[in-house]
Amino acid sequence: MKTEAEVLSPWSQAVSALARNWLTIGELALVAVVVHLYQIEGEPFSKVMVLTAAGFILSLVTPMAQRLPLFVALSLAAILWVFGLADGAWLIGLGLVLIALCHVPGPLALRVALLLIVGGGLAALRAGMGETPWSAMIWPIFGSMFMFRTVLYVRAVAAGQAEKGWVGALAYFFMLPNVAFPLFPVVDYQTFRRTHFDRADTAIYEQGMLWIARGILHLVLYRLVYYNVLNDPADVRELSDLVQYMLGTFLLYLRVSGQFHLIVGLLHLFGFRLPETHKLYYLAHSFTELWRRINIYWTDFMMKVVFYPAFFKLKKLGPAAGVALATGAVFFTTWILHSYQWFWLRGGFPITAPDILFWGILGALVVRGALKELKGSKAVKRASGWSWKHGLKAMTTFAAFCFLWSLWSTESVGQWVWIMGAAGRIDGSGILLLAGGLGVVFLLGGRDWEAAKAGQGGWRELAYKPATRTIAPLLMLLLAAQPALQAAFPEPVGKVLQSLQTTGLNERDAARRHRGYYEQLDVRSTLSAREQAGAGPAADWQTPAAVGIIRERNDVLSRDLYPSMRVVWNGNLFSTNSWGMRDQEYSREKPAGVLRIALLGPSHVMGNGVADGETFEAVVEERLNREFQLPGIERFEILNFGVDGYALPQQLALLEDRVLSFEPDVVIFTQYHRGKVMTERYIQKIVANGTDIPDPDFKSLLEQAGLADVPRGRFPVPFEWARAMAGALGISARMPQDEAEARSRWISEQVNDWSIARIAAAAREHGAQPLMLALNAVIDDVPEGIPNLEAVQKANVPVLNLFDVFPEEARDALRIAPWDEHPNAAGHRLIAEKLYEELAPYLARYAPAPASEPRARQPVTTEDSP
To answer: H or E segment at 806?
Structure first.
């Protein structure tokens, strides 16, 4: 019979473990609050945090022998929770197949061959060459788990180092944090297993919490840069813009270092004392040192898999040649494997000129540094004090890498060359920003921060304690998230603090869905919630161009709708009348007793995704005729002149081309969140097509941007010397698309302002009241202000404000599909309800005369506007 002491012993041990780690438990609770306030890494990570917190407490009271199986159970539970039972089971099952192949009896070559065959089949499915019983959402995480780890695991099995069997393999491949992070550090298997509780658990937990706090801080600083510092390449016009772009793109890497610190910190809470993933990489003193400090796990992976095998085979050529060729092989392999990584995470296999140049130049610089080290160059003596030589080297390395990183972040070499031209347009702000940025690196890089940590006393010793460095940034973030504190600062500062809690894409990326390599790879955290769920267009989903309703033109309209069309588009009947409107048939001459409204706009006005009669225009027209009484008015007609993709200048062109001939009493044009971007694209298109621009004011705006009088189908080259050389050779050079985009952006706001003024003037000249409809598609991130509102007010045009008409909680139910932001029939009914309320006050004032007294149409003045 057991004694009382034996019965109580496990409870005593559990209480002792909890008491011994009370600080870690408190820090973890603080982390959970900060993660919630800042919505760190979205819903999948929130689920991972719940399992981590519960699992950590449970592991503290679990015997050491059972902690690895507990970690495996939590990891598998996370997969099933995040992906659902069906997709989660498929992901686990596919993983088990690959792990089993790693243990097939026989020579290593046989296992590798089997893995290549099965992996090739899975790659074909990833490329869309066949149907799968699982959804596409599992591919990024599945690829993240197996594309590199399999290589290291097979090596460990071949060397007899996979000593923990299936439990160890499951823990290695299905690591708990991985379900929330497609972009994951390449954890070495031997290190993963060797460091599991190899030191006192309290010390491991302490280090883990420090890195979790650091990772969260990096992720919040990334938001600071992304929403407040980063600018677009096409916006680069002067030195200040260029410096801002180069600093911003390199600082975006804070997201990768933040995620990796967070991941490894979470693994520490389950006893995996893994090494640091990044180490003061912004303050590296050479490219070789930078390569060793940035993404340390990748460097170790390349050294183990590529460098050492290549070097030992090539060293017979001499140490220098061996080092140079092996290092070159590392960077060539890195370049290829980054495209391979892109394939599993995004589905494509891009090989671009910026990639080639970036990895080639970086590889050459690292080779140069390695050879310099090999020659026994004098080692730099490090000390805890500050050294101007160290600061100068850090500053030079940082500046050079910003320059190189900006190349990798652009879409093409042409775009990069174009934005580099801004360096010649020097402005005072640019000089100050350049001096300030490099000055900070110079001052911080002159100090050896690792050496400075040792031998401190007093308050410095307290400041360097892990608990202090963990709790202090978390408390700062906690305070910064308080609305009262944000309101206490001046408005610009308050908005910056609010942006730290923002998620999703910034305004430009939301329009273009583009950013640098790592931001695009981080699919689960960067895209919206419905895209995170793996949503994508169905195989038979048709675009307007594919269904054949768009008629391309080579005039200022650029495109319109084919008249008298009747097609089934994505399951809905789509018809146009004889005038090319998405509407019923109308006569050109306005009948007596009719109040006629002309509605202009883009795709959500035309009615993408809904059937005839379901557009908000049709619903409002029916309701007006059913409910709205107006003396002398027998019928209301709303003529839908909406055309997919129409920008404001196209709405103006259509107004002048045909709309006014229908004698409208009211002209409603539409502006929305993508208005500026659509105008940029329209300008590029008409210039590239050599479209004749009859309006002298519009042509003058194009001349201001260097886009007028361009030969048909070609752009002039950007620099005079190049244009002269091309002319001497008889070559008509094309302007790079990136330069055309930048020049178009310079004037897009002016073109929109001009279009608004011209629409208002043209409508009034023909006796019609102009109104502007502010209406977006069903988007998640609605901009705060209505674009071009100042120009609208200057033209004295009333605004029908439906800019944020879709309730946030109902948006998913109001889209035509998870992958398409156009409103469905329910969305159009909601628009119609709100538009009716906004429109009704304007109609009585602009009623035509009774049928017995034909009205002479008089110009409408700005004084006539309500």
So the answer is: none
Residue 740 and residue 684 in contact, taking contact as beta carbons nearer than 8 Å = yes
Radius of gyration from C-alpha coordinates of the chain: 32
Distance CA 438, CA 395 (A): 6
Nearest of 361, 265, 340, 780 to residue 521 by alpha carbon: 340
End-to-end CA distance of the chain: 94
Phi, psi of 17 (to 5 degrees): -65, -40
How far apart, in whole angstroms, are the C-alpha atoms of residue 245 and residue 406? 8
Task: Identify the three-state secondary structure at position 289.
Answer: helix
Q: Take residue 712 and report the two structure tokens written for it.
A: 């048909």
Question: Is residue 753 helix, strand or coil?
Answer: helix
Contact 82, 89 (CB under 8 A): no
Distance CA 74, CA 55 (A): 7
Question: What are the distances in angstroms from CA 5 to CA 267, 711, 851?
Answer: 34, 94, 103
Q: Mean pLDDT, the chain, as a whole number?
A: 86
Which SS3 state, helix, strand or coil, does residue 2 take? coil
> Apex CA 179: angle with CA 36 and CA 124, to 5°?
145
pTM: 0.80
670 by DSSP, 3-state: which? strand
Give the per-residue pLDDT at 417.
Answer: 82
Burial class of residue 170 in the structure, from the number of CB atoms within 10 Å of its CB (0-12 exposed, 13-18 middle, 19+ buried) = buried
User: How many whole angstroms from its chain centre is CA 410?
Assistant: 14
The structure tokens listed for 596 are: 């006629």
Tell me how far the alpha carbon of residue 168 is from its chain's centroid: 35
Which residue reads 């296992």 in tokens? 111
Q: How many CB atoms lie within 10 A of CB 244?
A: 21
| More confident position, 689 or 142 | 142
865 Cβ contact partners less than 8 Å away, ≥ 6 residues apart:
769, 796, 797, 798
What are the two backbone dihedrals, phi and then psi, of residue 666, each rounded to the nearest 5 degrees? -135, 135
**Mind listing the pLDDT tens digit for each residue in 132-151?**
999 988 999 999 999 999 99
The helix (run of H) or strand (run of E) holding residue 597 is: strand 594-599
Cα separation of 225 and 251, whole Å? 7
Q: φ, ψ for residue 327 (rounded to 5)?
A: -65, -40
Residue 861's alpha-carbon distances to 232, 536, 766, 847, in angstroms, are 41, 49, 10, 15
Q: How far is CA 562 from CA 554, 580, 673, in A?
A: 15, 6, 27
Distance set, CA 863 to CA 329, 660, 768, 860 (Å): 74, 21, 13, 8
**Helix, coil or strand: residue 769:** strand
- Supply the pLDDT for residue 534: 42
How many angstroms separate the CA atoms of 600 and 757, rounded? 15
DSSP string, 129-193: SS--SS-GGGHHHHHHHHTTHHHHHHHHHHTT--TTHHHHHHHHHT-GGGGG-SS-----HHHHH
Band of pLDDT at residue 232, cut at 50, 70 and 90? confident
Cβ proximity of 771 and 735 under 8 Å: no
The string of DSSP letters for 482-551 reads -HHHHHHS-HHHHHHHHHTT--S--HHHHHH----HHHHH-HHHHS-HHHHTT----TT---HHHHT-EE
Nearest CA-CA partner of 698 in 555, 502, 820: 555
